[in-house]
Amino acid sequence: MKKALHIFVFLLLLFCTAAGWAKTITVCSSCSVKTIQEGIAQASEGDTVLVKQGIYKEINITINKSIVLLGENLPTIDGEDRGEIIKIVADNVTVDGFKIINVGTSYTEDYAAVRVIKRDGFLIQNLELEKLFFGIYLEKSNNGKVLNNKIKGDAVNEYNSGNGIQLWYCKGVEVRGNTVENVRDGIYLEFSDNILISHNHSKNNLRYGLHFMFSNHDIYEYNTFENNGAGVAVMFSKFVDMNHNIFKENWGTTAFGLLLKEINDAKITNNVFQENTVGINVEGSNRIDYSHNDFISNGWAIKVRGACYANSYVQNNFMYNSFDISYNSGINDNVFNSNYWSNYAGYDLDKNGVGDVPYRPVKLFSYIVNRTPEAIIMLRSLFIDIIDFSEKVSPVFTPDNLVDEHPKMRKINHDRS
Amino acid sequence: MFKILKYSFYDLVRSRWSYVYFLFYLLLGAVLLFLNNDLSKAVITLMNVIIILVPLIGTIFGVMYYYNSREFTELLLAQPVKRSSIFLGQYFGVATSLSMSLVIGLGIPFIFYGIFNSNAIWDFSLLLVTGAFLTFIFTALAFVIALSNENRIKGFGYAILLWLFMAVIYDGIFLMSLLYFEEYPLDKFSLLATMLNPIDLSRVMILLKLDISALLGYTGAVFQKFFGTNFGLILSSGILILWVLVPTFFIWRIAKRKDF
């Protein structure tokens, strides 16, 4: 009797807690609640809407209270190309574990698979987005997280495709562990500050793997950007920290590993640039610290085009690039020091690991190619070797203070722990 | 012709110079591979050697062989043998033995290194094929020069000048004209200018297989579109063959009319 009472009290307590704190509303095709929209309508603040496996053909699912929208065994939400799918207009919303397909394409509105509008503390994770226009679109929303999503588009033309993850006027957002492929821009940021972008993999995108403008104090680390139409483009931003990223195989007539335009006071460290047409293309960028990067087998490792002052290139490896540095101005205000250059032909008599003869990374030929691009066809001709040599002995066309005074004799082993 | 080819060939194969040439390539290949350990980088270095050294050796050796075997040639001319077959036989004998030294000398170290299991095999075979082509072209040109100059010193002088022109001066003029006319669209001109010089043509053909990422810059795309396609490859090979055939025709013509 006493035991039964105990159980009764326990169950009562349990029931009260569930009712008073948070209840779970289950949505499935055979449940009483059949659509996600209906499930959200029945939920109140703090509840969980659990969606079972199945296909839900819904658009404009508006989440207007702080709930957890949880998918079980990856239920599919099919937008049937009709428009936007999930819209978050409440604080502290979690969306977890859905497969969202067929977002509508429009030429007047940016339909997204998941959109957050002016809200805080969202968590969007474990989504799989396919056949989309825009993927995850954060609009004036702060302090949220976008984690471990897989976005796979089918973009063909730039004008009618959208971006994978887009941040517009956001602050303090973390974007981590996402895979974005075949969209226009993999990750796009505009006017977004204090953002952490890490461990993402952005590949085969039509335009840029990562694209940001007017976004300051952001950190980009441990990302891989691979085979994108034009690599990664970053413009008009300050105090950016890019480290441990891999930029590779961005080939093509206008492709860059990394394009820097009007970037000031940034740090670019411990990155790998491999097999890009141009490793880094720099325009009008000042006070940037490039250190411990590897530039391997690029056409041009670094292309500097005008108005770049007080940058420092220290302790990088430049290996097997067709051109190490290309420079189109006669003045140099940048520091090149203690790098390893695979083209270095000097000697080290005192055996301290530092070459005794300075290295000139800019060749006359790269100056010529800058002026007359067709001259690239003379690459590796004996005549070019001869004029390069004479320019090396007495520089006339290239800035004579652009030298690495202490070139390393051996490849630098970066400590990347 | 084949009999004379055979005699010249055997004569050359037994000569010291062929061995030196063969050993040079053997050593070069071995040193490059086993000190470098990077196959594609070794292929790039080899390309530099091949496009400079092979034409030089072809030219010098061709001229030298012709002048040295003059007495034997005069003896042959007294026999009832066709003139064209004497000279063409000698020419093919020299060119074949030189290309053999090149192909075998470079081939052996690469085979030991395991080229067959590497994806650089196509780059490497392209390298050898262009090397052989260059040998044939420059030996033929050397024979033309030697046949039209009785004076040995003059002959050598012209031969060296020819090599210098093709390997260095041509590129200088080419580059100057590119810079001088930089306001004009130059892609067609540079394609044509490249096609006209066998050394440049071989260099570009190999380069497009190797330094591809640099050449793919905005202008590189034009070249890539041309040389990268089958049409471009066939046209380039056609021009290389033409470069062999035209001097050979001149050997035949000069030999027919020449008064000994």
Task: Tell me what you see in this structure.
The complex is a heterodimer of chains A (417) and B (260). Chain A is mostly beta strands and 417 residues long. Chain A has two domains: 23-184, Single-stranded right-handed beta-helix, Pectin lyase-like (Pectate Lyase C-like), CATH 2.160.20.10; 229-417. Helices cover 11% and strands 35% of the residues of chain A. Chain A is built from four helices and 39 strands. In chain A, strands 1-2-5-8-11-14-17-20-23-26-29-32-35-38 form a 14-stranded parallel sheet, covered by helices on one side. In chain A, strands 3-6-9-12-15-18-21-24-27-30-33-36-39 form a 13-stranded parallel sheet, with no helix packed on it. In chain A, strand 1 (24-27), helix 2 and strand 2 (48-51) form a beta-alpha-beta unit. Chain A starts with a helix and ends in a 24-residue tail after the last helix. The model of chain A has no long low-confidence stretch (mean pLDDT 88). Chain B is globular. Chain B has helices spanning 2-13, 16-36, 39-68, 70-77, 83-113, 121-148, 152-180, 187-196, 198-210, 212-215, 220-227, 230-257. The longest helix of chain B is centred in the middle third of the chain and has 31 residues, at 83-113. The two termini of chain B are 20 Å apart. Chain B is mainly alpha-helical and 260 residues long. Chain B is 85% helix and 0% strand. Chain B has twelve helices and no strands. At the A-B interface, helix 4 of A face helix 3, helix 7, helix 8, helix 9 and helix 10 of B.
